[in-house]
Amino acid sequence: MMTTQGMIEAIIKRAEGRYETPVIDQDLFDFPDSGIDFKICRLKRSNSPSAGFRTILIVDLPFNSLSIQAAFRLAADVRDILPEPQTADLYMFMLIRKIPLEDAARIETDDRFCRKVVAREFEEADDFLDRTFLSAPSSAASSESLNDPLLAALASLGDAHPWTVNHLDSWRNSLLSGKNGSEIADNLSKEAFDSEA
Fold first, then answer.
1. Which of 63, 118, 126, 166 has its CA 20 to 30 A from that of 132?
2. pLDDT tens, residue by residue, 99-137
3. pTM of this structure
């Protein structure tokens, strides 16, 4: 199971280049002892001087209702101290030992006070962060196919019908040509069947 210190280290590594050096300081928030281990990490976008902070409350606690309620109270206290509009950017990363998957999912769907992400029992820090706003940027190649539904559709057509692979580039050009539907249909038909004759 991850620790709060391990999570802080993973956040610092993941924030590099995207956020300014994270501020990790318990003294920013003066609370009575909540009985749970927690750290507060604040991130500010490095390329946006007017951006506010994203505040991450990292809690480490056992799976029992008293500890979970204490974490919710702590999140409410942090939210009360944050200036507007930073209250909308409060996240609680919950490291709850031995929590069943169903309970983790239930806690994550509860958006009172903040957005919550609960670590799964055998989840690594990088996999955990991939489920948050700190997810790793996708590569250009994978994002190109996600952002171009026509390219994705033609690729799946080529997988399903291998005889079309040689025609996909010309079909894509025809579909993007701006011609009307009947002209496109004629072009697609000619390209597919006249070239084989």
1. 63
2. 999 999 999 998 888 999 999 988 898 899 999 988 876
3. 0.66
Tokens at 189, concatenated: 């038909």
Nearest 5 degrees, angle CA 53-CA 4-CA 63?
A: 110
User: pLDDT category, 51, cuts 50, 70, 90?
Assistant: confident
* Angle CA 115–28–114, to nearest 5: 10
Q: Could you tell me if 187 and 195 are in contact, meaning their C-beta atoms sit under 8 angstroms apart?
A: no
Mean per-residue pLDDT over the chain, rounded: 82
* Mean local confidence (pLDDT), 41-47: 83
- And the tokens for 89? 């950017």
Residue 58: band (very low, low, confident or very high) from pLDDT cuts 50, 70, 90 = very high
- Measured between alpha carbons, how far is 148 from 9 in angstroms, rounded to an integer? 36
SS3 for the chain is: CCCHHHHHHHHHHHHECCECCCEECHHHCCCCCCCCEEEEEEEEECCCCCCCEEEEEEEEEECCHHHHHHHHHHHHHHHHHCCCCHHHHEEEEEEEECCCHHHHHHHHHCCCCCEEEECCCCCCHHHHHCCCCCCCCCCHHHHHHHHCHHHHHHHHHHHHCHHHHHHHHHHHHHHCCCCCHHHHHHHHHHHHHHCCC
pLDDT at position 100, please? Answer: 92
Burial string for 24-51 (b: 16+ CB within 10 Å, else e) reads eeeeeeeeeeeebebbbbbbbeeeeeee
